[in-house]
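Hi there. Long-time user, first ticket. I'm pasting a complex I've been working with (about 1215 residues overall). I'd like to know whether the download I got is complete or cut off, because the file seemed smaller than I expected. Thanks.
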Amino acid sequence: MLYWINSNILPKKIKCIFFKKSFIYNFSHFRQAYYGGNWASFTFSGLLAWIEENKEAFSKEEITEWMNDIKEGEEILLLNSSDKSIMNVEVFNFDLFLTVDPDEDLKEEGSSQKENDLFLTVDLVEDLKEQGSSQRKDDLFLTVAAAESFESGIDKSPDMYVNEHPSEALEHNDVCTSSQKKNPELFLDGKKYVNVCKTSVAETRKTITYSQIIRESRRFNIDLVSKLLYSRGSLVDLLIKSNVSRYAEFKNVNRILTYQNGSVEQVPCSRADVFGSKQLTVVEKRMLMKFLSFCIEYEQHPEEYADFKERTFSDFLKTKNLTTNLANFILHSIAMVLDTDLTTEGLRATQHFLQSLGRYGNTPFLFPLYGLGEIPQCFCRMCAVFGGIYCLRHGIRCLVVDKETRRCKAIIDSCGKRISLWAFYCGEQLISRAVLITDRSLLKADSEQLISLVTVPPLKNGQPAVRIIELCSSSMTCMQGTYLVHLTCSSVENAKEDLSPVVSKLFSENIKTGEKGEVEAERPNVLWALYFNMPDFSSVERSSYDLPNNVYVCCGPDSGLGNDCSIQQAEHIFHQMFPDEEFCPPAPNPEDIVYDGDGAPPEESLFKEHEESEVGDGEERTLDTKHLVTSTTNEAEDAQESVKEIPSE
Amino acid sequence: MHGRIKLKTTEEQAEQKQKERLKKLHFYDTTRSACFAKRKAGILDEEGLILSGQLLAANPDFATLWNFRREIFLHLKEEKTPEELQTLFEKELSFLETCLRVNPKSYGTWHHRGWVLDHSPSPDWKVELELCSKFLQFDERNFHCWDYRRLVVQRAEVSPQEELEFTHKLIGTNFSNYSSWHYRSTLLPLVYPDTECRVGRADEEALLTEYELVQNALFTDPNDQSAWFYYRWLLGRADREETVSCLYISREGQRLIVSFSHPVNVLLPKDELILFVDGLPLRVTWKSPHPQLKRSAIWICELPPNTINAACSEHNFKVHWQDGRIQRECILYKGRSESWCRDSATDQQLFRCDLSVEKTTVLQSELNSCTQLQELEPDNKWCALTIILLMRALDPLGYEKEMLQCFQTLKATDPMRTAYFDDLLSKFIIENSILKMEYAESRVVDLSKKNLTNLCHLDQMQLVTHMNLTSNRLKSLPIHLSMMQCLEVLEASDNEIECLEGLVQLPRLQEISLQNNRISKICDLRPLASCPSLILLNLKGNPITEVPDFQSELSELLPSLKDLIV
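Hi, the file is complete. Here it is re-exported in full:
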């Protein structure tokens, strides 16, 4: 039997699938109560819980009764009892509406029967309460509807809780909501808001409150790792080859933006973009296209860059008659390499980008609906269908190693239970991460439902280049009316110090200051922000650890944009373990499976008490959640529609 | 509980597949026979719809079955109530939609859809428009859908403005789209009508923004033809109006020659040409210069004897064409042997055609940006070709040297089309020569040593008396040469001429020099027999001179010939 611990492994997920074929049962061990470790994604309240967890200091536990399980000829290899990989966690809440009536429960939608009541009581004017509840509801909906009717082009879904309360409060200004009492400034803001509403409807800005975010917690799927899939990257190929793709759905990233000369601009990367770009002169267009065409087949023209093999890509770009603008676009947004990277690396990266372009749309990237956390889950699901077993909430206390063979025989989990067999990790380089919830897109466009990749070149020397992925609500990762923004960079300092300069340049964090400049008003407001560091394991070498020979080292997420690194590693480890087997063979079609009704193999029963509930949950989501969403249309409404049908857990 | 898997063997799978295919085939065959039997028996009922539907869902290109369905619908139209009919038509539309999903490029399906809507009691064309947009979103180059869209737009009375925006959107996603560009060329004149009311042309301001759009495409991908073709349309101008461009009278020859701007057939009633001499209609017989020319830019009539009186101080000749809407008159004064009245090529800027008479500044700036592009893309043939056209539009004579250079580039970059470029260059050189001749007010045209491969614009040389074609690469003297009714001396030595079919009925032709050509048979010289004035013929260096008895046969053929040089 195989046993996998390590909470931070995507590769492992991919290996899982194989096992069912040869009836080797795979046991994946997660300390946490969720799949995917650092690859996971959370609902908003799930993320809050995760934040709490990672703020806590872990107390050193003592070796206790489980020592009895160690047999003769065995020794133990003690592991860190806590996963200290997440560091420097900081949370900022910029929302003035945050402070809510103490009587009011901040509860998730669907967590109680009071959904509508809750909705009504939030900031609702008191005198309305005297009327019948149905009446109240209508009133409120009326105001919402009225406000919405001003804003053409905005989804009319009743799910959209547009906060019109301030204007409501003005109409009934004898009464004030509790939250407004506490925040007089907000009241002013509300007043201003109403004025704006009267003069220019187009200016209307929906206000999202913290309580709404909490209530709509389940609309959020916040990834710890922020990555995209290259349309011709190894993950996409693997998803297709292994048929795991049937469990996932994707949206094309719609635009690639960059921050240049103090403003957010669209990067023209495809032929259509270049054609449509208003920023480039026709000659620039030609030069850019010419260079990109060269990059696609750069191997065939070695003479073009022979002199630059040992020099940096940015030096090479300087010789290509490209304007500074174009060179920056290519370096930071297309190749996405550092100033110091060599020419061949830059060319290879550009080629990779371009090859992925157009396979599924106008940008080279795909984003999985419901977040990147879906991907490990999909592999888990496929694995589970064929008998893989997952242990959630079981950390690894120590390894039991056979003294003679130097093989790992078993593990002792955090509950002190002995379980046989498994793998391990460690690392030093850090990734800085931030997660923001904002109220509008970084760059206004015709559609509000766009996924954007924003590359921010280093603001100053020594600062890292920051990658931003802005997700819209139809990507099923945030509630309507908000955008979920992921910032990622290699750490120089800690997450807050690395990323907050970019956040303050691109976003507005001062919702309080009523007097906003014109430019300021164009920027998205940050409603909520989280900063943290996580380790980058991409450079971990197995040889640096003294490990039993049947223990394999899997890396956690790396800081890159794509997933190639992890896939490569998964395949490598898999072939070490099973040199003769195919990696992720295509899963058979349902009609090609014969159910012999024998029931589960005997090993499964060993762990039944631990796994049943978790595995069951995973299965249920496989069948119920995913199969309901049948289209990857752009229309957010469609997607939201199907989401509503997810049975509440 | 997880089922353990056993994969079926491939043989099992193959066998099952084979079985399924046979079953399908059998079903298809029986259903088809049933349909045909029904049609033959004239049973036009709903069962027929079901049967043909099953087949068409699998194979939408079965035209007979679509016809069968239409017959059924026409029949049911008599029997059913309007409500029943409406549901029937709605069902048909959703059926068609499923067919289109399977094959969005089936002629039969799209056509049937249009038919159904035209026969439907209350067609919803707006829905159809959305359907088109959806299909074009999947494949913006599906011309079947474009065709259908034009029908829908016409029926739904969608404004050209909206359609123009739609094409803009599609061009934005992918500008390699002939359909979309072409659609724009039809919409622009509707949305921005030309201020001078030229049919098919758009307002200059609109054209300027359009130039900008196309240039973006040209610079983004100069190897994409679709944008270049559209660009040439933009630079083009409206067709010249049909008119009578010249009237020529020869006293000596007792004939009258009428030239038109376009080839016409005046023998057809609608293009009837009426001659008035001194104000009185005169019945004459019109003929084209060459028997093979049914439509010709030149028509000739022999005047009845005594029409021209030498003593008369002047004769007034006038033609009415197209019921008198177009007229031209010419006066032959006493003592003059000939007279004409014409539009000159220089006045008309005739050879700037294909390109518009826009303000020269616009053309100049277009030329500049194309030259800029050529510097970046020296090997791009579309760019070189457009530069040539622009230079010709601006100043055909001034840019002659640059034009020749551009042609060299073109031939080097696209050797497969060398012959096309040679012909095109010949055309432009002849145009320039005509211009030069007209500026000099002469009737002599020198086209020697120009590498000509082709002769054109011969109708413009109707008055020319001397033409020099020496040292070119001509293979024939084409039938259009017969339009040069005034030609007296033709020098065509040092070419590759094998055939003289154009030297027919040229009344004034006296000397022909055909030294060093490839005339090999006596019958090739036969057309010359119809040229009554021919007295000198130079055939030195032609294979025909080797033929025994050639001289005697020739004197038989051309008895009036005085000098034969061999």
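A couple of notes from our side: The mean pLDDT of chain B is 88. The domain at 16-158 of chain B is CATH 1.25.40.120 (Serine Threonine Protein Phosphatase 5, Tetratricopeptide repeat).
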